[in-house]
Amino acid sequence: MTTVARLVLGGVLIAAGALKIGNPADSVVAVKAYQLLPESIAVAVGYALPILEIVVGVLLVVGLLTRVAAVIAALLMFAFVFGIGWAWAKGLRIDCGCFGGGGQLGAGQEPTYLLDILRDFGLVLLGAWVARFPPGRFALDGALGLGGDTHDEDEGDD
Amino acid sequence: MSKGERTKTKSQSAREKIKAQQAEQRAREKRRKTITYVTAGAVAVAAVGLGWWYAASISRSEEATGALAPVTVQADGTAVMAKAGVTAPVVDIYEDFQCPACKELERVSGQTFKNLAAEGKAKVVFHPITIFSQEPTKSNSVRAGNAARCVADGKQWLAFHDLLFANQPSETEEGFKVDQLQQWGKEAGVSSPGFDQCVASNKNAQAHLAYSKKISDEQKLDHTPTVKLNGTEIDNQVLFSPSQLRDEITGAAK
């Protein structure tokens, strides 16, 4: 279970980061769209987010520093849940789409806030699970003996 | 001391010795783990830092190098920024005052366009358009577009254009209000007679919308910002990286 959670969460993070990393401006605009952070911080977060996602994702997949990575991943996902909830509550139509895609959301089209929140919340749970029962199978932590003291009892978990 | 007692002491001391050894082993093991952990952590943090630095550095804006190239406001509401006699390469910037990505483009690459024009390496044409079809963004954008058309002097137009992007309102509320636009006009040094009246009456709204529709159809625009170099769209990735953008535009001049 831990291993599966690790791979899913790590995979999602890597994919999310990889989509954004080629174009920092993209993620800066996305972060700003939430209107949660002051301008200068939003810019810094926008630049850091893609690489942070990728690094944490890779750590999870290879199972290195599993617990720390899982905690960061869960916090990230929680921040996304909060951000989307915030956008929803404020009635922001986040998918402004003036970038890349075909303009903004059409008349009948609604942002899929609920779906996004459920998805990200599920990922928060996965992160919490991994943080509680690290590191799972095929993890570098195990090979390096970094598993922590709960290591042995959790072998049978997946 | 009886024999039994001796054995006991002996085994006790042996046990203690083993215990001490084990403790040392554990301590060593712990040290090793700590070192591995810290090393892995440091590498991860360094990777994040490096990535962040890289992202920040490829989107580092150029510094202002001095005087701007002359700006001329055209009858169709566009503004041309070029040194006298420079006619190529042509950089067409299609942007919406209300679009956040356009604001980001101005923040990251705006100075590059200005510098290139000032160096005589490009003829830059600003096309303010309205791409939004929903409220409140559409009206915000149209009010801003109208106000820009109320400015006749090129230098003032560009200063006003920059202020509009710097003060872009949220996409969810009414913004670019009449009194704000008039205030920014003052800040930009707009001296056109009747500017305030022109902003308040929104008299160029029709012309602005008509131009937006015409140019969008002609140029097949489906998003802003769209920047074309001699008629060919520049990739977003290049557009938001000032140094690559400069190379691409100066490359086209040859």
UniProtKB/TrEMBL annotation, chain B:
Domain Thioredoxin-like fold residue range list: 88-237
Protein keywords: Disulfide bond, Membrane, Oxidoreductase, Redox-active center, Signal, Transmembrane, Transmembrane helix
Gene Ontology MF terms: oxidoreductase activity
Comp. bias (Basic and acidic residues): 1-19
Domain of life of the organism encoding this protein: Bacteria
Transmembrane helix among keywords: yes
CDD domains registered for this protein in UniProt: DsbA_family (cd02972)
Stored InterPro entries: Thioredoxin-like_fold (IPR012336), Thioredoxin-like_sf (IPR036249)
Heme in keyword set: no
Membrane-spanning ranges: 35-55
SUPFAM superfamilies named in the record: Thioredoxin-like (SSF52833)
Region annotated Disordered, chain positions: 1-31
Entry similarity comment: Belongs to the thioredoxin family. DsbA subfamily.
Name this polypeptide is given: Putative membrane protein
